[in-house]
Each structure stands twice: as C-alpha cells, then as structure tokens.
Specification:
Blueprint lengths: L1 E7 L14 E2 L2 E2 H11 L5 E4 L12 E3 L6 H12 L4 E6 L7 H10 L5 E6 L2 E9 L4 H9 L5 H7 L3 E5 L13 H7 L1
Parallel strand pairs: 1-4, 1-6, 4-5, 7-9
Antiparallel strand pairs: 2-3, 6-8, 7-8
Helix pairs in contact: 2-4
C-alpha cells in the first residue's frame, strides 16, 4: 500500500512564520501538498510538531514521535503509525512541484526502500517514496543522532534514483519569503 505524506514539522525560523500556512497562488503550502496527493489517490497524512493545528486539511494529522529531528523524525513517525505502508513524501514548503513529478515517482517506485529523483546530477530527497523497509535505516540514523537525509540515502542499498528530465525549479523549496517573491 502507498499513501501520501506531507512533512510539516519544521520551525520555519528563516521564513519568520509557519510556512505550512503561507500562500502561493491563493492556497496554503500545506493545502497545495495535501491536494496534490489526494489528486493522485494517495490518502495523505501530515506529520507535524505538537501544538500545530492543521485540522483544516481534512486528512490525518499526527505529531512527531521524535520532535525536532527533521525529516527523519517525520518519516519515522509515519512509518511506525502506518505499518507496511510506503509513502510518497513531500515537504510542505515545495509549492512548485507538479503532479507529473509526483506521478513519475509512483510509476517507478517498484518495491524499493527509497525512490527519488536526481536533478542535474544532484540527488533530491523530496519528493520521494520511502517504503516500509526504510524504517530500520531511519531508526538507526535517529538512534545515532545522525539526522542527515544524505546519510540515510547513502546507507540504503535498495534505492532507485531517477533522472528528472523536466524543470529543476519544481524541486525548489521555500525557506525565506524572498524565495516566494522571486518565483512570482
């Protein structure tokens, strides 16, 4: 089984306010990500920090089991709550990613531990499909306090990397308000 996962647990310190609630083309980043996953029929889940209220997205919202551990903590939480489930995973701050990019991962995912894109020879950690077998690697990284997604990818012997033929800007994330202004 595969579901959608939106990681929305960051502090948004560089952005200055909760990025998940920021708007692009009239819709919040979080709603945009959730809606994209719904359009693909993936029954999305949002993982966030305690105290965040994202009930407006009308999908399950769960709290990080490992708060402030970055994307690894969110992936770990989803993989432990929804056992035997793979997740097409987005971060909430990727408002430019297209359905074509997301569906391309679904077409190629097979039953790998991790399926991701490379863009101009650079590995993109998100969007990506993280399968149930990735749980052991994620757990090991968290226990070692090694929070790097790069280290997780390096540790995986069952990953598939797909060369993205489209516009590389689809994989841009928004860290500062200026990033969003520059895109308009």
């Amino acid at each position: 089984m595969i579901r959608g996962l939106v990681l929305a647990g960051g502090k948004s310190s560089r952005f200055g306010e909760d990025k998940a609630l920021a708007h692009y083309e009239g819709i919040s980043f979080l709603e945009r990500a959730v809606n994209s996953l719904k359009l693909l029929g993936l029954h999305p889940v949002v993982v966030t920090r305690r105290g965040a209220d994202y009930s407006f997205v009308r999908c399950p919202v769960i709290y990080d089991k490992f708060p402030e551990q970055g994307p690894l903590g969110g992936i770990y939480t989803a993989l432990t709550v929804f056992r035997e489930t793979a997740f097409l995973t987005l971060t909430c701050d990727m408002p430019f990613v297209t359905l074509a990019a997301l569906s391309g991962l679904l077409e190629e995912k097979e039953s790998r531990e991790i399926t991701i894109y490379s863009v101009n020879d650079k590995i993109e950690k998100f969007p990506g499909v993280y399968g149930p077998s990735a749980l052991r690697l994620v757990r090991r990284q968290l226990l070692r306090n090694e929070l790097s997604m790069r280290a997780l990818l390096d540790a995986s012997s069952e990953k598939k990397i797909i060369a993205w033929p489209g516009d590389p800007s689809e994989f841009s994330n928004v860290n500062r308000k200026e990033d969003l202004v520059l895109r308009r």
